[in-house]
Amino acid sequence: MSQANIPNISPNINITREDAVNLLLSSIALE
Q: Would you call 1 helix, strand, or coil by DSSP?
């Protein structure tokens, strides 16, 4: 169970970082 949770956390962090970058790019594009 613990091992299954660890891999799930890593991709979630990567997605969050990508979303943050996308939001920054979108904000710049809108301006």
A: coil
pLDDT of residue 25: 92
Mind spelling out the 3-state secondary structure of 9-26? HHHHHHHHHHHHHHHHHH
Give how many domains the chain has, as a whole number.
1
Q: Give the domain extent around 27.
A: 1-31
- Measured CA to CA, the distance from residue 17 to residue 11 in angstroms comes to 10
Average pLDDT of every residue of the chain = 78
* Model confidence at 21: pLDDT above 70: yes
